[in-house]
Amino acid sequence: MITLTLVALSLFLLVAFLVKELWRPANYPPGKIIIIQRRLLQLLQQRFRAFDMSGGMLNQLPWLHFIAPEWSGYNLVRRFNKQLFEFFTPTIEQHQQTFTDDKAGDDLIYAYIKEIREHKDVSDTNFTDVQLTMIILHLFIAGGHTTSTTLDLAFMTMLMRPDIQKKIHEEIDSQLDRAITPHYNDHLKLPYVEAFLLEVHRFFTIAPLSGPRRAITDCTLGGYRIPKNTTVLMGLRNIHMDPKHWGDPEVFRPEQFLDEDRQIFNTERLFAFGQGKRRCLGEILARSCLFTLFVGVMQRFSLVKPDDGSEGSDMAPSLTLKPGITLSAKPYNVVFQPRNRTGMNRPLMLI
């Protein structure tokens, strides 16, 4: 039995996925990579909590970091950013020492080092050591919290909607070889899973407001005059809960993203990753992480409520999410029951 919060599990899975897929740590002794992942997980959790407490206020009142840097949480966020920066520096230095051109094909750090060396004589290049570290930070900070929270809510929905879990298991079992690890390319074979994940984005809308945008000219929208340079935020939850488009928005229904031929459609009003030129640059990576991790877990486990009296308690799954600059699930108990796989005859309890 392993005891941890399900949010921590989702974030750990994401960290392990990104570390594995984006770079291959070189010359680490056995077990070292696990220590690295755990330390990174700890730093990310602390940084996410700090930003949830202060990020919204600093975003709306940015001048606070000048007059009250400690009280506003600005200094705390900067301290965690510095620790994360220092965390990645040794890995980058190690890659620089072991770099060869043939390693740049499947490793983000090696690929970027190659670009740095090819642009070393360009005076205004953006390919620098500092920029490389910032890119890695952004991958984990900007996408880690939202993606792991979405994964956690997907697992919670499996508990609350066993009818949907049954359909997901049936589709995965009919389309994928259980002995083979799922890949994002498999999403074309699993339209119901794709529709389910889209509905998780819509129904929960963990980022109720978009990032701030600036009006570049005077304009009128919906009868309201918006002067040039006005900061504009979109109410994404209002869009995702508009009955004029969704019909019954309070009902969790993956089928609304499937047409008669079971092809994905009806996504033009889904703004989980934004729209237009400012659409999230990490969308493909986030979708790949979310799909691969979710399908990998569901391929091997059934999620059931524990028989521990937690039903009706504070540890029962709830549609009431924790507030913050992004919304997240409250901690809840769940049993991950192996699905009749050899050598996996005991349930795994995650709290």
UniProtKB/TrEMBL annotation:
Cofactor(s) demanded: heme
Gene3D superfamilies hit by this protein: Cytochrome P450
PROSITE patterns, per database record: CYTOCHROME_P450 (PS00086)
Keywords, sorted A to Z: Heme, Iron, Metal-binding, Monooxygenase, Oxidoreductase, Signal
Binding site for heme: C280
Stretch forming the signal peptide: 1-18
Entry superkingdom: Eukaryota
Name of the protein in question: Cytochrome P450
Naturally occurring in which organism (per UniProt): Anopheles minimus
